[in-house]
Specification:
The protein is an alpha/beta fold. Helices cover 30% and strands 23% of the residues. The chain has 12 helices and 19 strands. The strands form 3 sheets. The chain has a 9-stranded mixed sheet. The structure holds pyridoxal-5'-phosphate. The site of pyridoxal-5'-phosphate (PLP) has 10 residues, from strand 9.
Length: 369
Amino acid sequence: MNKIGETTLQIDLSALEHNYRFLKSKLAQETKFLAVVKAFAYGSDMVNIAKKMESLGTDYFAVAYVKEGILLRDAGITSPILVLHPQPVNFHELITYSLEPSLYSPKILNLFLEVAKDKGLTTYPVHIKFNTGLNRLGFWENDVDAIVEHLKDKKELKVISVFSHLAASEDATEKPFSLRQIETFQKISEELNQNLGYAPFRHMLNTSGIINYPEAQFEMVRSGIGLYGYGNDKKIDGQLKPVAILKTIISQIHKIEPNESVGYNRAYTSENYRTTATLPLGHADGIGRQYGNLKGHVLIKGKSAPIIGNVCMDMIMVDITDIDCKEGDEVVVFGQNQSAEDFAASANTISYEILTAISPRVKRVIINS
Ligand SMILES: *Cc1c(COP(=O)(O)O)cnc(C)c1O
């Protein structure tokens, strides 16, 4: 079943549905759900993920940049799309494709308002982002007056939502900080509503926020990593299913004698007789050099095969001395019996990074659609 003949990222749409239903079960029925599909849906397949999420009834999508939103529109996605980090150079296209900008600074608000006036827009939907402690993007609390001055009784733009982002929603030791962020956001949004004369909907929680602070779900939540099967928490991971499964095959097997070396710069030297397998994926496919030299391992016939020597551009070599396998056999890199979170941890990083690193060269195959 689902036999592969080359390095393949399988995208399991039934896992996506399972994860969506799990996350929804943590929320009030009326809370809107925004699916974060930036970075090719966390390195998977943005169009197919978005189509599935639209069919499941998600309320909103978010991408980071305008060009990602255009890909969704070109694929026929009609749901509202929030662009989290639009650049002014793309404002015209953003409007052409009916994308909705996050306005996060006085400068961005002014520039967008100018374009809106130029184009004669009326009540164009925009989202106001507040910084409550992440110190990455967002207006400050004391910008509220200026925002209201620009937007109150102006016909060009309509504030559809206000939002903020938690800095450490997965980290229990930072709970007091997260609670303070939530409180600050609540206060700012009340102030904005009062002065604006209407009440945009509010959202603050990412995946770990949904798990740890459901009381702050407001009118919408924004989930990315949870949809793809990871929750920054072992207990939650056990209840989610990985959407992306990275598999490859054995290209060639070598018998290595004692004191032979394997790979570039002879980074691995055998102490005794070893058997190695060469696999057709390397750092150009997203397996960074930090996974080499016994840090990362793959699974063959359910057994662990450590990556030996340096990761090459197009290949890695693994030690299969104790594994009964042959050329052409399937290899699991992550997503089945080894999670992307565990694989990432072997190189001191996180699921988000390995998932989004899988390059376009790797074939995507939809399963269980
Ligand atoms: C990426 C992103 C999210 C999604 O976070 P997850 O931890 O993947 O659920 C939510 N909100 C904003 C502003 C983001 O940039």
